[in-house]
Design a protein that fits this description.
The chain is an alpha/beta fold and 541 residues long. Helices cover 38% and strands 13% of the residues. A hairpin with a 2-residue loop joins strand 9 and strand 10. Helix 5 packs antiparallel against helix 14. The protein is elongated, with a radius of gyration of 25 Å. It starts with 6 loop residues before the first helix and ends in a 5-residue tail after the last helix.
């Protein structure tokens, strides 16, 4: 059983108390209105259970369609209680900022273990070892995708236009593209230039997430291995494209370079080998690893072998100076760990593991579902570029920037998404040449919530929670804190916000707001946050 980290919950408590106080009067009125019928329903259910001598089945059973009043009661209760209960429903969070309660629910619903999904070229993905491998992501948003989204009519376009136009047409936002969609039906409720392709900044990561999950599966893992060339006594550290590989003592669930070295040394000891030539293999990727933006603290060189995202301090997110050449640096660190276990290794050099090489040991990343959540919550550019390249590998395309962009676009097209006008040049959104439409972003969110595509669900569960997690933790101090879940996008002169929100009537809406030519980051973010808050408080009929 996972024990949730409690500190984020304590930090979030003031927000929850404030929200609960705000919704308590309405919740009380709603409860009073539906209590008589709910009481009769509970009594009837109790009577049925009393007559049954069989234990309750863990399987989901077929039930009769609820009556209209039951839809209404469910929707009203869900909508009013959502703000007060969102931290309980979506958290608390573990030390990486992810929502352990949602993952625990996935454990209960799906006990499947990680698989390698074919382990395409270079052994980039292999099953984890040991009995404690986390399960894959499941349909954790069933509550939002069911009666709580269909109990009352969706907002009307006319009402949304009256509310959103004055906000989104503010001069501070420059050129805009916006879309609001009913998640239950996929119907667009509001749009302004929704088909115009603008620079999406980091909302590009939603496209990367959906493409990678679709191409690889939510349980796929990225594997780093140590191979042995018996003829030359060469140990080759083979990069598997895992940017979360860590050299730190506390791996916190990530693949550990220390662990890999310990097990490699043990395997060498069984062969009587105490001195080796050390090499590293980065042939999984193609082309230059230098992003078009150049050397930048927001992203390390894109290589299949790195430790701790090539960070030069103890940080785990945000911009920081990176090691100039991550692969040999990781190999040198690995060599040091081998020495700790009595194996002398030469200074490392580039090489390629041959087909004659024997695998000594492997370590695997967390499941792709976890990597996607981490990428979205933290807006992690290194994970984004790695997932883009793995999407290219799965599609049989070159694992470089061009191949990754083409693979993502092709994967989205295969899912039936509106890719007209889209231009994807990287996986992270740092490239200003990227172009996405608001229509495509909302379609991605709706597809991720589609019951027919449960593997895509982490593209929703990883979205930052307003006022609580990731890139939205310092926004929405009032208003829709805890209710909006959205990916931010920020470049100089570009601001974007795309995600989901449950409106006042319990209807789940997907939205995307893109703004290019903004006159100030703070003013643009305030306008976009205000637009999302309006949706959260909207009955809008």
């Amino acid at each position: 059983m996972v024990v949730p980290e409690l500190r984020p919950w304590r930090a979030a408590r003031p927000h929850v108390v404030r929200i609960a106080d705000a919704v308590r009067p309405r919740a009380a009125r709603a409860t009073a209105a539906v209590r008589p019928r709910l009481t009769r329903a509970v009594a009837a259910a109790t009577s049925r259970l009393a007559r049954s001598d069989r234990p309750e089945s863990p399987q989901v059973t077929r039930v009769n369609r609820p009556k209209t009043w039951q839809f209404t009661a469910t929707a009203a209760t869900a909508g009013l209680a959502l703000a007060a209960g969102v931290v309980t429903a979506a958290g608390p969070w573990d030390s990486t900022g992810q929502r352990t309660a949602e993952r625990d629910r996935a454990v209960a619903l799906e006990a499947a273990r990680g698989t390698d999904h074919g382990a395409p070229r270079g052994n980039a993905g292999t099953p984890p070892r040991g009995p404690d491998a986390p399960p894959g992501a499941a349909s954790v948003l069933a509550g939002l995708g069911g009666t709580a989204t269909t109990g009352r009519p969706a907002p009307t376009g006319k009402a949304l236009t009256a509310l959103l136009d004055p906000i989104l047409r503010s001069p501070v936002l420059g050129r805009q593209s916006a879309s609001v969609v009913d998640a239950a039906t996929g119907k667009r409720l509001y749009g302004t230039a929704a088909g115009d392709a603008l620079t999406p900044a980091s909302t590009t990561k939603i496209a990367t997430a959906v493409a990678a999950l679709s191409a690889l599966g939510a349980d796929h893992r990225l594997t780093t291995r140590a191979a042995y060339e018996p003829d030359t006594k060469e140990v080759v550290l083979v990069g598997g494209g895992d940017p979360t590989l860590t050299a730190r003592k506390d791996a916190k669930g990530s693949a550990s370079l220390r662990d890999l070295a310990a097990r490699t040394a043990a395997a060498l000891a069984k062969r009587g080998v105490r001195e080796v030539t050390l090499s590293y293999d980065t042939t999984l990727y193609r082309g230059s690893g230098r992003h078009p933006i150049g050397v930048n603290g927001n992203l390390a060189e894109v290589t299949p072998l790195m430790a701790d995202e090539a960070r030069t301090d103890d940080s785990t997110s945000g911009p920081v100076r990176r090691v100039p050449d991550p692969a040999p640096d990781a190999a040198r660190t690995f060599g040091g760990f081998l020495a700790d276990h009595g194996v002398k290794a030469s200074p490392p050099g580039p090489s390629k593991a041959t087909t004659r090489a024997t695998t000594l040991a492997t370590v695997s990343s967390p499941p792709l579902s976890v990597l996607v959540e981490r990428m979205l919550t933290r807006s992690d550019n290194d994970i984004a570029e790695a997932l883009a390249r793995h999407t290219a590998i799965a599609a049989g395309r070159p694992a470089d920037f061009a191949g990754a962009g083409a693979a993502i676009t092709a994967q989205l097209k295969e899912l039936g998404l509106p890719v007209k006008g889209a231009a994807i040049k990287d996986g992270s959104g740092l490239d200003r040449r990227n172009r996405l439409t608001a229509d495509l972003l909302t379609a991605l969110l709706v597809k991720a919530g589609d019951p027919a595509h449960p593997d895509l669900r982490p593209a929703l569960t990883g979205l930052p929670v307003a006022g609580f997690t990731g890139t939205l933790s310092s926004r929405y101090a009032d208003g829709a804190a805890g209710v909006v879940r959205a990916k931010t996008g920020t470049l100089t002169g570009v601001n974007a916000l795309a995600g989901t929100v449950v409106d006042r009537d319990g209807r789940l809406l997907a939205f995307a707001f893109l703004a290019d030519g903004t006159t100030g980051q703070a003013a643009a973010e305030e306008a976009l946050d205000k637009a999302a808050t309006v949706l959260a408080s909207c009955g809008c009929r």
